[in-house]
DNA sequence: TAATTTTCCGAATTGAATCCGAACAAGCGT
DNA sequence: ACGCTTGTTCGGATTCAATTCGGAAAATTA
C-alpha cells in the first residue's frame, strides 16, 4: 500500500524514479528494465520504489500519465494559433510539433512509446499490409479514373494504420463517444469524399 | 537455441502451445500468464516450451504472427467482392468483417490484442483527447459554416486516434513507404477535402 | 531536546522463467 | 525384429528479478 509523499524530499524521490524509468526504458528496453536498474539510475534504494508505487507496473503507469500530460501541455499553448489557421495547415503543424516533441532528449519519449505500444507487433503486421495493398491495387486498376488522384500511397498508409488502430481502440473503449457504425461510416466517408474531391479538382484542371 | 519441429507430433506440440497462449492470455491477462499455465493448458511439460521457443516472449511473438496471418487469410477471399464495390462500402465492409473476426471465440483475439497493445495506456490518453477536442471545438465555433458538416464526432475520433498511431508507427518504421511530410500532407488533405466536399454538398442541397 | 512522523534503505524472501540431463518415442539400416 | 541414432518430452534444480520488512536516518513538531 504505497504512500503519498508529504515532504519535498519525498516528492523529489518520486520524480527521480519516474525520470529514471524513462531513461532506463529508453536505454535498455522493457525486458532489461529491472527495479534495481531504475533505483540505481534514480539514485535511491530498491525499497524506496515500493514506498510510492504498488509495483513496477505502477511506475510505468505513472510514466504514461506524465507523458500524456507533457504532450497535452505542449499542445495547449498552440491552440490560439491553430484555430485561426486553415484546417489542413493546422493538422500539418500539429503533426510536426508532435514529431519534434517525441524526438526531444535524443528520442527518449519516442523510444518509450514504441515499447509501450509493443511495437514488435509491427514487424508481423507486414502480411496484413500486403493483403490490403493488394486489394487497393486491384481496386485502382479496376477504376482507372482513380489512378490519377494524388497522395495514394500516403492515404493508403494512413487508412490502413489509422483504421486498424481506430477499430481496436474503439472495441477496447468502455465508453466510446461514437458508435462503431458511426466510426466505420466516418472513415468510409472521409476516404470517399477525399477521392471525390480529388476527381473534382482533376476535372476542373482538365477543362 | 530452439529447434524446428521435424515430426508431426512436435508440430502438434508447437501448435498446442501457441493455442494455449491465446487461451491463457485471454482468460488471465498478461501478468497472470505464466509458463506453467501455458504448459498446463497445452497439456505439455514446462520444459517443452523451451524446445521450440527462445523464451516466453517468443511465444507471444508467434501468437502475434499467427494472429496477423489469420487476419490476412480472412480478408484475402473478400478481395474480389471488395474491388467491385464503391470505395466507401468496401471500407465499411472491411471494418465490419474485422470486427466480427476479432469477436470470434468469445472475443479471444480481441482480448489478446488489447493486452498486446498495452491498453492501460488508453486510460491515460484522456487529457490529450481533451486538449485536442478543445482545439477542434474552438475551430468550429470560429468557423461557423463548418458546424453543419456531418459526422464531426466520428471524424474527430478517427483523426485523433488514427493520427497518433500513424505518427508513432511511422517514426518506428525502419523503412516507411512514404515520408513523414507526405503522411502529414496526406492526413491534412484527407480531412481538408472531407470538409470541402461536405460544404459542397451542403451548398448543393441549399440551392 | 525529546517525541513523533516521514523517508530511506538493502538483506532476505518468494516465485516465475529458464536450464538440463535423464527417459521415452520415432525413424532407419541391418 | 533389433540395435542405433535422432527427435521429443519431462519436471526437478537453478537463477534471477520483484517484492517485503524491520529498523536506521532525516525531518517535523512539541
UniProtKB/TrEMBL annotation, chains A, B:
As one GO molecular function, the record gives: transcription cis-regulatory region binding
Q: Which residues form the HTH tetR-type domain?
A: 11-71
Would the keyword DNA-binding be found if you checked this record's keyword annotation? yes
Protein origin, superkingdom: Bacteria
**Which residue spans does the record list as DNA-binding?**
34-53
Keywords recorded for this protein, A-Z:
DNA-binding
> What protein name applies here?
TetR/AcrR family transcriptional regulator
Please name one Pfam family that this protein belongs to: TetR_N
Q: Which organism is it from?
A: Marinobacter halophilus
Amino acid at each position: 500500500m504505497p504512500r503519498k509523499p508529504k515532504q519535498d524530499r519525498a516528492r523529489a524521490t518520486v520524480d527521480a524514479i519516474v525520470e529514471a524509468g524513462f531513461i532506463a526504458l529508453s536505454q535498455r528496453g522493457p525486458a532489461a528494465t529491472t527495479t534495481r536498474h531504475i533505483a540505481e539510475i534514480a539514485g535511491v534504494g530498491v525499497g524506496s520504489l515500493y514506498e510510492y508505487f504498488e509495483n513496477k507496473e505502477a511506475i510505468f503507469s505513472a510514466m504514461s500519465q506524465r507523458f500524456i500530460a507533457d504532450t497535452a501541455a505542449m499542445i495547449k499553448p498552440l491552440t490560439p494559433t491553430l484555430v485561426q489557421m486553415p484546417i489542413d495547415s493546422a493538422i500539418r503543424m500539429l503533426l510536426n510539433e508532435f514529431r519534434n516533441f517525441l524526438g526531444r532528449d535524443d528520442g527518449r519519449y519516442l523510444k518509450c512509446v514504441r515499447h509501450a505500444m509493443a511495437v514488435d507487433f509491427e514487424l508481423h503486421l507486414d502480411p496484413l499490409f500486403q493483403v490490403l495493398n493488394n486489394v487497393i491495387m486491384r481496386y485502382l486498376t479496376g477504376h482507372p479514373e482513380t489512378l490519377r488522384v494524388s497522395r495514394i500511397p500516403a492515404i493508403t498508409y494512413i487508412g490502413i494504420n489509422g483504421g486498424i488502430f481506430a477499430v481496436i481502440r474503439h472495441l477496447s473503449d468502455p465508453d466510446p463517444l461514437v458508435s462503431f457504425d458511426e466510426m466505420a461510416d466516418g472513415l468510409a466517408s472521409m476516404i470517399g469524399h477525399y477521392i471525390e474531391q480529388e476527381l473534382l479538382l482533376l476535372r476542373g484542371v482538365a477543362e
